[in-house]
Design goal:
Elements lengths: L1 H7 L3 E7 L7 E7 L3 E5 L5 E6 L3 E3 L8 E4 L6 E4 L4 H14 L7 H21 L2 H11 L2 H14 L1 H4 L9 H11 L3 E5 L6 E4 L3 E5 L1 H4 L4 H14 L3 H20 L4 H13 L7 H11 L4 H7 L7 H6 L13 H7 L6
Length: about 325
């Protein structure tokens, strides 16, 4: 398989990507990595990564070829018909790394048992850190999303049900699309700022909306939360230790008690704010003004002076976070 990977490494082409059925398709650049399909925008910024074992074809034998990540047929990638070499590479690689789809129950249990036993033996010699690194590297996007969605639902035990004022839902959807976040839950209590979950999901405290006069601050807390935790799944595995990494590798899921435990950790002790250079880069990539967020953290500007001075978009403003009527509606999402 390594020979096949070397042959097709760095192969690129254009395609049309649709993240959800209710959004327009957008032109993207598709490139093959060692074990992933990388979807990038015209500025070479990664929009998403698909694990090659989880890539499925919607229309075998037809052109243009349409692919989707296993478990989420709503997200599609239509490869330009002129890039037959890219389609051929995707087909060969995904078949080379894919797990057999039809396996008897007894054989499946045997394979899982042998895998678990082997990994348990290796874990005696591996550092827990190395095992967690391996787990986050190979887990498919669909598994990350499932874990993040489970955590999103479990968080309600600590915070209450997410705010869902009907008039504010279109505004929340618009905020998700503007920041390219898969899902945002506005929580009525317990959380003051924002925390990032696996699968590009964010939990957002109502104070980040209600206590400020412009949506750039709200967007800033979301961008900062994701910058502070570049791989939220890694944080879950650190909380769960070696058993959590083994469980994820052998089943593709994590136990509910671990997810609840980690949510409690995140809410009571959120990750430290990212370094200034990391924050600046994150705000540039998301095209969000940094100054409003920096002043929200410290109205005097003393502790965030470096951010304010280096903030992007001080002269040429990016596209608005939300239009005015959406921002007004979003401020009432919790019924206040």
């Amino acid at each position: 398989m390594s020979t096949a990977l070397d042959k097709f490494q760095r192969l690129e082409g254009t395609a049309l990507w649709r993240e959800t059925p209710d959004v327009q398709r957008r032109e993207v650049i598709v490139s093959l990595g060692e074990a992933t399909l990388v979807i990038k925008d015209s500025q070479d910024r990664a929009l998403t990564h698909w694990s090659l074992p989880a890539v499925r074809r919607l229309n075998p034998g037809q052109r243009p070829a349409v692919f989707f990540p296993d478990g989420d047929s709503d997200e599609t990638l239509e490869v330009d018909p002129s890039h037959d070499d890219l389609v051929e590479a995707i087909e060969k690689l995904r078949k080379a790394v894919a797990r057999p789809q039809k396996v008897s129950g007894r054989l499946r249990k045997t394979v899982l048992a042998v895998t678990a036993a082997s990994l348990a033996g290796l874990a005696v010699f591996w550092l827990p850190d190395a095992l967690a690194n391996h787990a986050v590297r190979v887990v498919p996007t669909v598994a990350r999303q499932a874990i993040g969605q489970d955590m999103q639902q479990l968080a309600t035990r600590l915070t209450g049900q997410p705010c869902t004022a009907p008039l504010a839902i279109p505004a929340l959807d618009a905020l998700q699309k503007r920041l390219q976040v898969r899902s945002i839950s506005v929580l009525p209590s317990a959380l003051r700022e924002a925390i990032a979950l696996p699968g590009n999901i964010v939990l957002l405290g109502r104070d980040t909306i209600e206590d400020h006069e412009e949506p750039d601050v709200t967007a800033g807390y979301i961008v900062a939360a994701q910058a502070a935790s570049t791989d939220p799944l890694r944080g879950v595995l650190e909380t769960g230790g070696i058993r959590a990494s083994l469980r994820l590798l052998t089943t593709g899921a994590l136990p509910e008690d671990l997810l609840i435990q980690h949510i409690e950790v995140l809410i009571s002790n959120p990750p430290s704010t990212a370094a200034d250079d990391t924050l600046i880069q994150a705000f540039e990539e998301k095209r969000v003004r940094l100054q409003p967020y920096a002043l929200a953290r410290d109205p005097s500007g003393e502790s965030t002076l470096a951010l304010i001075e280096a903030a992007p978009f001080t002269e040429e403003l990016p596209e608005p976070i939300l239009i005015d009527r959406y921002w007004v509606a979003l401020q009432s999402i919790c019924g206040s």
